[in-house]
Every structure is written in C-alpha cells, then in structure tokens.
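quick one, four chains, predict together pls
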Amino acid sequence: MNIGEVARRSGLPAKTIRYYEEIGLIRPRRSDNGYRSFAGTDLHKLAFIGRARALGFTIEECRTLLALYEDETRESAEVKRVAQDHLRHIDEKIAELQDMRATLSHLVRACAGDDRPDCPILRGLADPETAG
Amino acid sequence: MNIGEVARRSGLPAKTIRYYEEIGLIRPRRSDNGYRSFAGTDLHKLAFIGRARALGFTIEECRTLLALYEDETRESAEVKRVAQDHLRHIDEKIAELQDMRATLSHLVRACAGDDRPDCPILRGLADPETAG
DNA sequence: CCTTGACCTTCCCGTGACTGGAAGCCCTAT
DNA sequence: ATAGGGCTTCCAGTCACGGGAAGGTCAAGG
C-alpha cells in the first residue's frame, strides 16, 4: 500500500503518517521508486495509534502502549498503570475546565449584552474583588 | 516599576511579560538604562490579561477584550459574544474529555491489572469492534 | 576602587503534534 | 507529449511561552 491508501484506511492524514515515521513510531519499507510501502502490520499499528491519540494519549504514551502491545511478556498491570495515569490527567483537565466554566458563565449571566458599555465581564477581569 | 516587581505583583513570569510586549499587548516605557519601566496602567493590564488567560481565553481574545475594556463606547453585547463563544468552546472541550474519560475508564475497569499479558485496554485500542 | 550578586537586556533554540506549502520526481492515460 | 494525480523531501509556521547564554546595570560591602 502507498501512503494515500493507508491514510484513507487508517483515517490519518498522510502528513501525520510521515511524521510518525520520522519520530520512529512506524518503519514502513520503501519501494524501488522511493515510495513508502506499507504492510498490513503498519496499517494496524497506525490504527492503534490513531485510537490511542483519540483517547488523548500523548505520542510518548502511544509509543509505550505500542511497545507493550508488541511485547508478549507484558503484564497487564503496566498497561493499566499507563491508562490510569492518563485518566487522572483527563480528570484534572476536566476539573480545570469546569472551574473556568463556572466563573465565566457566572460573568456571562451577569452581563446585559446590550448596547451600553457597562459590562460585568470586563469588570470581573479588571478586578474580581470589586466586581464580585 | 521594573519587570521583577511587576512580575511579582501581577503573578506573571517576567518572560511572559516580555513576550506580551513583543506581541504588542502592552507598551511599557523604557528608563535611561534600557530597563522596562512599568506604569500602574501596565500592571493593571497585565493583571487583566492574566485573569483572562486563567479563564482560558486565547491571546487574541485577550487582545480583543483589552481593546473593549479600553473603549468607552463599547457595547456590552460585544463582550458578551466573545465570552459566550469561549464558553461554548470550553463546553466542547469538556464534552470531548468526558467522552474520552468514559471510553478509557470502561477499558480500565475491564483490565485485571495483574502479571498476565491479557489486556482489554490493548485489545480495545487494537480493535474496538472485536474487543467490545 | 573592586568585587559580588541581584537584576536587567537581547537573542536563539526547544516544546507537541502536527499543518501548509514549495520544488521536484513517478506513473498512468490520453 | 502532456496533463493529472500521487509521491518525495525540506522548510517554515502554529500557540504561548520557557530555558539558557552572553552581557550590561546597579547598590552594597570590603
């Protein structure tokens, strides 16, 4: 398979696939004309990486997960630890965003949103103490 | 004020303050020795930006908000629109993260996390259809 | 007067994970 | 012969900074 077909079948942009080769996540062969020649396993790996990325794992975590996936002697505990670490990370981000959301929606609700200049949002940003 | 004091009082790193000057968010004067010389209004602006950033606004949104803040003829509707757009953005991110969280925690719960190689997390990444 | 140390300056590189675009080769069809 | 689509590499840009080098400035102490 050439990169175009792999891109189509994995759902990843060709650019991204080239990048993944550059950083050593995959090692497709080359045809005589210099084109990348992907085997089924390459496609499989790319789909794996794509799903891991969709769950928010970093590239380095994907690298770790791929290595564990290919290691027949892995212990599932190690995989679970990686996943749980990431889960905690997700929870932290959700909490951060919810804090932002709470503050911001409070300000938004207080703002008339009309043609007058008075604005609780700007007051809140300028001085949260005074603006309440 | 020199940059150190402004950094302390605004809570922003000096590096960040220099960066904000570079991209034109603030324009502190210069002393004869070449040091940046910050006025009260500069500190005020920096605190404003810091709070907007803490709510997740991008730099460009901060620029817009600062301009609105300084425009006595603004309409609060415009501020509100910027804030609501950002609020929607936050909600999208929260939803994305919650989707990730749901899928990932499902996989984590299914994983024994022991010394054996069998791992539903890896199976889920390799092939979500088969792995369920 | 000299040094020390804290502060300040600019400049350049690196981050994560790509994305866009330019210049040019390969292959097939007409 | 040419047109097109696909492929290659390489370079630059994204966002919002952070790290660190090389060097100027200033006040205090010996």
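Chain B is about 70% helix and 5% strand.
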